Amino acid sequence: MEIKQDAWTIDRLFNDRSRINLNPQWQRGPAWKPSRQVLLIDSILRGMDIPKVYLRGRQGDVVYSHDAVDGQQRLRAIWEFKSGNLTLDYAERLPDIGNLPIFGLKYAQLDQALRSRFDNFEVSIGEILNATNDDISALFARLQMGVPLNPAELRNAQLLPLNRIMASIAESHQFFQNSRISPSRSKHLDYLTHGFAVLAHGSNRDIKAPDLQRLVAQFGPNDTDAILELASRTGDVLNVLDGVNEELNFRITQKWIFVDLFWLISQRHDDGAEVDAVKLAESYRHFDQLRSAHNAAPEALLSARGRTSRLNRHLYDYIIAFKSQGGLKENLKVRNEALRAFCPDIDARN
């Protein structure tokens, strides 16, 4: 890997924006709030240094000339401002630069001298040449060590076969497109990775961040058949879960609810059954109403006697396991047993 040091004007970066890919797999999408974007633009207008941007060259690519490896948020802020989509609003009034105002203005409203200063500002560029995917993963992780990336984003930086196919499913499957789960900060991929983990290992392993990291690394280039088999099973589960979510008015937004329903559906599929989305939604709706009613004080469930005592115990165990370290294998198993008890008749009839 070679890193060529250079400096590009903002004018050049803006003119080349259609050739710079801001959304390679390892990036997290828009994450900065407008206030943070404004502070960056303010710094540029005042001639302050900003951190270096790292771009990976894509030789022979007809669409993009570069991928943004580091600095995506800065580039996005710069382009938003120059395009006229960002106003220099802030909680406190931004001081004038000399005698020229900037507060509350868009790019086109700035004095010509400030527009020229902005356009000619030089951004330090590290252009990455002749890099493998492993090189990029290592560089990205190193660059981000001082930035609060979450575990899902760090896993997403691993350009490994399993991660690539999971990312493709997370970006394209109708369940995620229809759901109310936020797509920000790799959340779709994070949920799906948890689903892959229970498909691969059931409740035999924890599915906390280090365990998911190991899962992604477990499948290499020679494991294509196993990866595709997991992907096929995942697609079948998500097809059912999309129907369940629609019946529930798209209320599946919490990660452990997604994981628990995902695993329940996959278990029925593994047993050779088809799951009726309407039946599962009805059973889960009843279960979730009880869970919500007892969530604040689940101890009351333990005092019941008679026919409901067994289900009440399952519900109590589920609530406790849901609240405390949901990724532990013991808690996964407890929640799964509870859902199976409350959803006994969810198979489709042929």
TrEMBL record:
- List, for all copies, the residue spans of the domain called GmrSD restriction endonucleases N-terminal: 12-159
Q: Which Pfam families does this UniProt record tie to the protein?
A: GmrSD_N
> Which PANTHER family did the record assign?
CHROMOSOME 16, WHOLE GENOME SHOTGUN SEQUENCE (PTHR39639), DUF262 DOMAIN-CONTAINING PROTEIN (PTHR39639:SF1)
Recorded protein name is: DUF262 domain-containing protein
Q: Which organism is it from?
A: Rhizobium laguerreae
